[in-house]
Amino acid sequence: MYPVFKDMVGYLVKGGWMMLPLTLLGIVLFASIIRALLSLWFVGEVEPENESAYLRRLRILKVLTSVAPLLGLLGTVAGMLKTFRGLATKGTLFAENLVAVGISEALVTTQFGLSIGVIGLTGIMLYRHFHDRYQLSEYQARAVRLNTATNGGRS
Fold first, then answer.
1. Residue 65, number of CB atoms within 10 A of its CB
2. Is residue 153 assigned to a domain?
3. Does some domain include residue 1?
4. Which of 15, 26, 35, 94 is deepest in the core (most CB within 10 A)?
């Protein structure tokens, strides 16, 4: 097994059970961002029927981006519960390892959820930027066509 892959699996295992939904959410969010950006790239222009698709994709991206930090926070709570459960069952004398594992799980899920959220926000910003750019170029082209039609080609 490749060392990088082994490290990634170790990181996911260290975060506990909440890492599975976070990982799946990250994959779906990343694929949605790529699909949204490619849809703008291949269409290349903004038309009224494409506007509803743009708004639908933007809404999906916003929801997925909002859920990621919340799942990370849920993983934080699960890790802290594991920490306190370890303290309650083992007492304070032998609980160092359980406390370390629980806090590690809490921090890893928080970090992962926030990272997915930041990636999602970046994707939303890129998607909106390129959409606005295409829309502006379409408006400029319409203005030139209108000016040409009304002035008969004179500036």
1. 22
2. no
3. no
4. 15
At residue 149's C-alpha, the angle toward residues 144 and 155, to 5°, is 60
State the Rg of the chain over Cα.
24
Question: 71 lies in which domain range?
Answer: 19-147
In b/e form, how buried is each residue of 71-109, taking b as 16+ CB within 10 angstroms? bbbbbbebbeebbeebeeeeeeeebeebbebbebbbbbb
Tens of pLDDT along 30-76?
999 999 888 887 766 555 567 788 888 899 999 999 999 999 999 99
CA distance 63 to 19: 19
Residue 58 within a domain: yes
Dist. CA 77–CA 63, nearest whole Å: 21
The answer as to whether 8 is a domain residue is no
Number of compact structural domains in the chain: 1
